[in-house]
Amino acid sequence: MTAALLTDMYEYTMVDAALRDGTAHRQCIFEVFTRHLPQGRRYGVVAGLGRILNYIKDFRPSDDELQFLRDNKIVSEETIQWLENYTFTGTIHAYREGEMFFANSPVLQVEGTFAECTVLETIILSVLNYDCAIASAASRITSAANGRPCADMGGRRAHEDAAIAASRSAVVGGFVSTANLAASLRYGIPAIGTAAHAFTLVHDSERDAFESQITALGKNTTVLTDTYSVEDAIRTAVEVAGPQLGGIRIDSGDLASMAQKARHQLDALGATETKITVTNDLDEYAIAALATAPVDSYGVGTRLVTGSGHPTTSMVYKLVEREGSDGLMHPVAKKSFGKSTDGWRKRALRAYEYGLAQGELVLAGPEDVVNSWDEDTYGDTKDLSIVAIDHGSIDESLTTREALFAARDYHKRTLNELPVNALSLLDGEPAIPTEVITLV
Amino acid sequence: MTAALLTDMYEYTMVDAALRDGTAHRQCIFEVFTRHLPQGRRYGVVAGLGRILNYIKDFRPSDDELQFLRDNKIVSEETIQWLENYTFTGTIHAYREGEMFFANSPVLQVEGTFAECTVLETIILSVLNYDCAIASAASRITSAANGRPCADMGGRRAHEDAAIAASRSAVVGGFVSTANLAASLRYGIPAIGTAAHAFTLVHDSERDAFESQITALGKNTTVLTDTYSVEDAIRTAVEVAGPQLGGIRIDSGDLASMAQKARHQLDALGATETKITVTNDLDEYAIAALATAPVDSYGVGTRLVTGSGHPTTSMVYKLVEREGSDGLMHPVAKKSFGKSTDGWRKRALRAYEYGLAQGELVLAGPEDVVNSWDEDTYGDTKDLSIVAIDHGSIDESLTTREALFAARDYHKRTLNELPVNALSLLDGEPAIPTEVITLV
């Protein structure tokens, strides 16, 4: 299955009709944005750009897929031929991965002909809507963890391929490792793991299980201690591994008091360097509540891969300018009740004072007017978009493993530039206001 | 990326240790179940079995993946060789796709050696946790739609591959069609589509857009009417297509009153057969509220692919019996606080009275005792599990397209056997009680 079929049928039938009437070749600008952040959220985090670029690079149906379109009379032969030769020749501006976004932030701008832009709508939205949801949750989770490392253990609670994207997006939001081998192979994210209860249960005793694990994986391994009694398990594990035991994991019960007791017990046994990992439906709230407990790292599953209550991002892909029959670009907007859009290409800036972000400016208008806008009115500003594809030429550096880890650094840095209320876990207003200014 | 790497690292490191100490070869029974339905839900719907069987059929790492495991020293060479030759030789019992499940329902039972069962944990859970979440939501949505057809339009709001699984699971829950071409190609689900606002906007006028669409797709097409004024759009569309216009779509505003007004207007124009489709963040509640509106079909997106508030299912994979050093099978259970398990293989029955389901019986105990249990105590009962894999031999009929549509029929039939409160959208108790009975 190629990226070209990860697509809603109407993208192709619209192109089919537009190829017949000639509008398929009109120059267009589409923008991706959300009308609102999820209820109460202070900011969103962009993720998925690298994945989108890889899809665009290979966006062409296979022979089988073309035959399917033909057999089912979904499009005409003219459109089949157009798809056979598809190459995106347009330009994409985008927010960096790791960048914050707010309502109306033009996260991605796609310029090209109506046809070449339209067929990319579904895949672009699928990637952004999922990846941004996970990165946004991950950022809140790692903020709550306040420097203690967070590991993605959510693969089993997500669709098996979404799990890989979730591991990647978690890194953008500050996670350091993943349990998922596919994500480790594909993106170079460090793989981690402990053991499951079944491993203890398949052995005749917990001691047998720990001996086996420590023999195979070394003393630095992390043993799971809550199959029977945590206290007994810790005593056994230290007897088997000695005080060099790498770590223990607790996966049930009152994690704070259990971690505290475990720490005291480990210290009393001389295992002062043994780490304590906790897991069990953790999210940013549960982790914040563990701030004073002697926990060394967190394994986060369900709540990470489901966006901690917001599993999608409500991003939409809207036409904002298009060439008219006069050959000139015109702003366009729909008037749908409660879902109207703003015409014109946008230029997004973040305004700063003393290095702290004060607001998001979204300027709409003719390109020359917007670009010559006097920035001084708002003090220091930073343009938020970069060029990801320039007339068909993809910036490959944005698709590398290095780019993923750079996105994490970038996110951490820019998050620290937001007002401190951005880090509040309480529901509230966006961390900074967004002002949409139409310059015409 | 093969199914074998869509896996948490610890599955392989546990096998590595177990191969060294010999427990890898112990016969085991693992069971998949959830400890509780999502808050307030009356029932869950099984989906994903066909996908799981396909993954098990091909579960073997590629050469690149084996090299990754070797290079990163994740497992020993002995384990690499074991993985190279992996074939599942065990037996899987499962609830049918479309079957209802409740807390503690043994949805899937995996029997085989510890090693061959352990490596399947992650992929089995990923598939069931996502697919059951979507099928469960779809079932509530189609119940609320009460016979009006529902179409999946959620691909853009989900991870791009999860979108395909969502289309499939939606069918299990009663959906009739999908916008997603990949799902249509893979599973034979009828593809549907209308047009986007961009199609209207790229044209010089709404009339130009409708003329183009109707020329390309015929009069039976569905036009999108809320780009500007719905009333004007309907008038224009009927002028262009005549009263044979196939359908209109409304995607914003107060859908009930807009549909009512549209119906009156269409009828007045003679377009009495023109269908009305509504979309816009619909879920079971919104659809229930549209019951009296003259709507012909629903397009459902975000809320379908995110499980209508419950995007995962909390299924777990637990060891319940294993061979001991005496060569006999023994029940095993963990005691983790709040997450303890019940030992012994389970046998699940549904009890009926006058053809109506009265309760779920989950019998635990030695196989012969459980199988000879006297069913008459509970009146009519039905065994809920079927054999999906018998000593390595997969029942291929469960992986076909026909099986998917049969699952939809089966679901509808068995849902009608539940007490009518199952269909309540209000939060409440499970539709029928589950009793776990240990027979030892």
UniProtKB/TrEMBL annotation, chains A, B:
Residues 5-129 form the Nicotinate phosphoribosyltransferase N-terminal domain. It catalyses: 5-phospho-alpha-D-ribose 1-diphosphate + nicotinate + ATP + H2O = nicotinate beta-D-ribonucleotide + ADP + phosphate + diphosphate. InterPro entries: Aldolase_TIM, N/Namide_PRibTrfase, NAPRTase_N, Nic_PRibTrfase-Fam, Nic_PRibTrfase_pncB, Nicotinate_pribotase-like_C. CDD domains: NAPRTase_A. Coiled coil: none annotated. Residues 150-343 form the Nicotinate/nicotinamide phosphoribosyltransferase domain. This is Nicotinate phosphoribosyltransferase.
